[in-house]
Design a protein that fits this description.
HTH_MarR-typ (chains A, B), WH-like_DNA-bd_sf (chains A, B), mainly alpha, two-stranded antiparallel sheet, homodimer, DNA-binding, 151 residues, DNA-binding transcription factor activity (chains A, B)
DNA sequence: TTTAATTTTATGTTGAACCATTTAATATAT
DNA sequence: ATATATTAAATGGTTCAACATAAAATTAAA
């Protein structure tokens, strides 16, 4: 991977600065590989994310509830949902109890697509195969600690 | 940070899967904090990135050379450069030796802006203050290993 | 030398983040 | 009961990633 060659060539002010760059590289690497799995199904990572959230919930969720469960806090949920509606992977119905809300449900077509994608789950997990179990745990610990700032 | 609460509440298939989610969270956290520093100067992370690359180069760079030094391989360099031109932070001149190329140079105004931003460098580094030196090194090692896949 | 291939930049499109504002519905206060 | 505040969703604007294609200049080939 040329990214890696790149990052090793560069000079850094500190290990902390290198860690920032490294985090960005690693995120980009992860996204690139994620897209490889999803592209053939004409699905973006965020669309996939929302589909999984809806299936996991097992009941209709409002746009706000979806957003709160998404990885990107600030995601433009209503427009992503609209794209999923256009692809007929989800349905949108105004909530009768509170008509400000929209009940979003995964459709049969959406469920079928996820079933197909479940097949990829193991290759998907294998993305991080270079780390063994304990290294993955270690990484999780460091990232948690990293983010745990007071602000 | 509510992100962290979130990630600890969730159930994960494996430490590897958690590490993926954790990487995404951490990247988003980093970007959010980066933007906080740049917003007051009406600069995006990518624009800042290009300005630093140009100053660091010490000579005019072509659009392609800039892109090759950027963190995001696929970045839309020519349009970002155009926005910097509009802000008068860089200049664009067609290269006389090879008229396909465009020589991009940081302007005095751009240089002044970076000088101001240099002031923030220490707070900037302090973003990762929760990790000590050896933890940062450890994180770098794990991220390098993570990405070092064959494909 | 003229044609073909390659390189570099520009442009177009879609998806999405982020920010602000608007609209509709509900809850609260007077 | 009406006016105000709050909440949820939709919408508009800008920036950028990712992908494709076009246009211009250069290089290679015939």
């Amino acid at each position: 991977m040329s990214l890696n060659k790149d990052i090793n060539q560069r000079k850094f002010r500190s290990e902390h600065q290198k860690a920032m760059i490294n985090l960005i590289y690693s995120y980009n690497w992860l996204m690139e590989n994620t897209r490889k799995h999803l592209d053939q199904y004409d699905l973006t990572p965020q669309q996939f994310n929302i589909l999984r959230i809806l299936r996991g919930a097992g009941e209709p969720l409002s746009t706000l509830q979806i957003r709160q469960r998404m990885l990107d806090k600030m995601s433009d949920t209503s427009r992503i949902v609209d794209r999923l509606v256009k692809k007929e992977l989800v349905q949108k119905v105004v909530c009768s109890a509170d008509r400000r809300l929209v009940d979003v449900t995964i459709s049969d077509k959406g469920r079928e697509l996820l079933t197909i994608l479940d097949t990829h789950e193991s290759e998907w997990d294998a993305l991080l195969k270079n780390l063994d179990q304990s290294e993955a745990t270690q990484l999780n610990g460091l990232l948690d600690k990293l983010r745990n700032s007071q602000d």
